[in-house]
Each structure stands twice: as C-alpha cells, then as structure tokens.
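PROTOCOL LOG
Step 1. Enter all chains and additional molecules of the complex.
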Amino acid sequence: MSEHRLSTQVGQLARRSVLRTMRQPAQIVPALVFPMFLLAVNSGGLHETTKLHGFPTDSYLTFALAVPFVQGALFSVMNSGTDLARDIETGFLDRLALTPLRGAALLSGLLAGAVLLGLVQAATYLTVGLIAGAELVTGFPGALVIVALSVSITVAFGTIGLFAALRTGSGEAVQSLFPVFFVFLFISAMALPLELIQTEWFRKVATVNPVTYLLEAFRSLLFEGWELGSLALGFGIAAAVLAVGMTAASRALKTRLVRT
Amino acid sequence: MRHQADEGARVARFRDVALAVAWRSVHNFLANPAFLVPAIAFPLFFFIAFAGGLSAVANVPGFDFPSGYTAFQFVFVLLQSAAFGGVFTGFAMARDFEIGFTNRYLLAAANRRGIVAGYALAALARALVTWAILTVVALVAGMEVGGEGVELFGLFGLAVLVNMAATLWAAGVAMRVRSIQGGPLMQFPVFLILFLAPVYVPLGLLSGWIHAVASVNPVTALLEAGRGFISGEPVVVALAFAVGVTLPILFALWANGGLRRAEAAG
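Step 2. Run joint prediction.
Step 3. Record the structure below.
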C-alpha cells in the first residue's frame, strides 16, 4: 500500500474524528468548564498556602494553573475511548475491517479529535489563567511550549482510551476508567510542591507518580523559567505513554479484528 | 374510629412500599461491586488526598483548628459522602426509570410517596456503610476527636440530614428527567455547592470572591458546625440544624412535584 494511500486513510479518519468531536459539545464543554471550576475553587481556597516557608511562588493561581492541562488531558482518555467504543458497539469497526484500511491509519486518524481537543483546551486554560492574573515568566515562546506539551499529553492519554475501548468494546467500561486517572492526579504534587508534602507515604507515592513531573514541566514554564530538565522529563513521559499506549492499542486492534 | 383505622392502613401501605423499595435498592447496592466499590472508594480517596496531601495546610499562619487537619478534612469528606450517597441513589432511580422498573413500582404501589421514601432509606443505608468504613480509616490514620457522645451524634445527625436533602434533590431530578442523562444535573449543583464552601481552610482564611461566596453558602454552616462537633467546641449549631432541616423539607416538595410529573407521564 503506497504512502499516499496511507495518508489518505489517515486524513479521512482524522476528518471524521475532528468533525465528530466538534459536533459533540457534551465532550468539549465539560473538558473546558470542569478544570476551570476546580482552578477557581482551589486557587481561592488554597491561596494561604503560599505563606508556607518554601512555597515556590506567591501566586497560588499560577501554581495551580498547571493542573487543568493535565486534568484536561484525562478527558481525552474518555473522549477518544468512548468514540471508538461507540464505533465497536454500532458495528462501524466491523465494516471498516472489511476495507483495506491499515491499523496504523485507524489509530492515528482517531487521535485527530484528541489533537483538536488538546489545542482548544490548552488555549482556553492559558488564556483564562493569564486573564485571571497568573504569571508566565517564559513569555510567548513559553506559551507555545505549554500548548505543545498539553497537546502531546492529550494525545498520549488518548491512546490509553483507544486501548481500553478496543480491549473492552464498551463505552461504559471506558467511562469507568476516569476515576482511576483521577487517583493519579490527586495523589501527586497537584496541590502542594513535593517538598512541602508532610505525610511521608503520600510524598513517596507522589514522587514516583509521573503526573507530578508533568505538572512540574508546566510549572517550570509558568514561574521558574526555562528549566530544560523539567521540560525533557515532561515531554519524555508524554512520549513514553504514547509509545506504550499506541503499542497496546495496535495489539488490541489486531485481537479485536480477529474476533470480528 | 373508622378514620383512625384508615389512617393506620395508609401508614402501613406507605411503610410496606418504602421497605420493599429500600430492600431492593440496598440489595442491589451491596450485591453489585460496580455500585459498592465506588461508593466506598471515592470518599476514602478524597480523604486520603486531602488529609494526606494537604496536611501542611495546618502550618498556615492563622490555621488554629484544635483537632488537626485530619479531623478538619474528615468532616468535609463525611458530608460530601452523605451528599453523593444521595446523588448516586438518584442515579439508581433514573436507571430504574430507563429499564421500566419504576413504572412497575408506580403501578403496584398502594402509596406512591413510599417509593421515594424507600429510595431515601436505601440512600441512608448505603451512606451508613460508607461512613462506618471512613470513620474506621480516619481513626486508624490518627484522627484526633475532641468531641464527646452528644457532639458526635450531632455531627452524624447533620450528615443524615445532608444525605436526605441530596437524595430528595436527586429524586426530584430523576423523576422529571426519567433517564440517566439527568445525572450531570443531579451531580453538578451538589458538587458546586460543596466546593464553594471552606473546604481546605476555615472561612476566616479565605479571601476574595471565594470568601464572599462561602459566607452565604448554607453548606458553610454545616461544615463549621460539624468541625465544631468533632473538636469538642460546638459553633453555629442552631444555624446548621436550621439549614439541615430546611433543605430536606424544600427538596421533599421538589421530589413530590417530580413524583406528580412521573405519574402524569405514565
């Protein structure tokens, strides 16, 4: 199969995925509103923690602004996975299986909706955060890197949603993954920096939790400056999740197509 | 005499319907891990995340809660689990509408208000299971309890009232929407009102818009009274119980209206 054919396949499926995402406000609105609501509540409720000795900034809003980018990416697990699960439930995947479509094209095309959602989310969170008074010490170049990191994480998490959908074939099962990912978010350095977490076991778990380093990558751009180590770790984790998720989803797709 | 006998029969019919509905709901809850596990795991998870991850908040200048941060967060998680126990029961009610089970209830029940009462009893039973586990975990985690018998009774009494209010709210929505698609409508306002209260620090340490909103949020009185009970230094008790009693009454009217709509819809 030629490269042209592959790109055509990816393009067609990407177009469908993007249109499908745009036509479902129920997917986009919660992914924008819910993280912004938590940002508003947490930055108001935890502002006093900036008075703790060793807190890295005097603006809790700036510190907390990293969270919506990761939280929003969690929504891509649900959205990508639920869309694919619906395709399985309605028999659309079975019909695709009868065509000469390549597995890589299917998975890549399905992630196009996640890319769009990631872009919209990142732009919204950053704009709202800056209007509300958050800092961005790295300026416009930093804003571009934040958007790139946000989209990378959103796509990486989206592959996990695809894997879950292909394994289970059920939208309900994909939805039930949401709380699991919330555990990863909450038991991280989400609310306080690692060094200020006093409960020892919690600090240990947060230290080995990759979400902590995704948050630190965003925070470095917001109030620390160009910390290349933090950025490399953030993009590295996103790349690792993408590689693992895509491999797992490809294998699950083969199994699913054999079943059908 | 005859009037008394009629009244007795009416109460008996109400009780029979309520107990039958409650029994089925509690059985479904306890027998299905998909319902049981989240109901227990979520409050525990919030408790761990807040009390564990944010314990340094106790060092913030001006934070002077006598029983420590674990007890401070326990009260929030207790009331939150009370509210969400009610909301999840609303989900079960909506699901019963979708599969047609509630229509059979409506046809068979001699007293239809007993159906709502049955779901409310089930919500309370599932909340009691969650609270028992949450309390044991909090005590094992070293929660300091300054309050004594009557005060702790007051704390759990408030939780019961919150559970009733949330159940009746969610039941009102479920009977109007009659689909699980009404889930966000049941859940989001409860989530909103809970988190617009002094969740992480006392009201006095909040500032700006969140302080203004929390000051007029009725949940603030419930939280402050609950925290006063657990520390053995009760505050705003009368206001909290006034709020705690008023909310179930208002939402009982709301649920009753929902029942009429469901009856009219057939």
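Step 4. Note key features.
The CA atoms of residues 85 and 127 of chain B lie 6 Å apart.
Residues 33-101+121-265 of chain B form one domain.
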